[in-house]
Specification:
Order of helices and strands: EHEEHHE
Strand order of the largest sheet: 2-3-1-4
Strand content: 25-35%
Shape: globular
Largest sheet: 4 strands, antiparallel
Helix content: 25-40%
Distance between the termini: 12 Å
Radius of gyration: 14 Å
CATH architecture: 2-Layer Sandwich
Structural class: alpha+beta
Number of strands: 4
Length: 107
């Protein structure tokens, strides 16, 4: 039986301009997809609100330890190197940790 998810992290990205917002959205549309193969990874959700110029990136993990291993991995560095090299002007982001109270997927 698959172990339950216990940890989630939300990256809340805010863009100052519509152009900055579009750059953020495009960067996620062309992402490399490296997180999906990580041990302990459960789900990824990327939400974009053009009216508010905000993007929410939520990953769900079986444990905080699994998430921390992802952050320390070579895959994480590769997944984020393009964003770091382009450093999107006019954006700010905040990572917020959550305890997962309930997590269901279709069987």
């Amino acid at each position: 039986m698959e172990s339950p998810a216990t940890f989630a992290i939300m990256n809340h990205i805010r863009a100052e301009t519509p152009e900055a917002f579009q750059k953020v959205v495009e960067s996620f549309k062309t992402r490399r997809g490296l997180v999906e193969g990580r041990p302990g990874f459960k789900a990824l959700l990327i939400l974009a609100n053009p009216d508010r110029r905000e993007v929410l990136v939520i990953t769900v993990w079986e444990s905080k330890k699994a998430f921390e291993a992802w952050v320390e991995s070579e895959e994480f560095k590769k997944a984020h190197e393009r964003a770091r090299s382009r450093r999107l002007e006019g954006t700010s982001s905040e990572g917020i940790e959550f305890e997962v109270v309930d997590f269901k997927t279709p069987s």
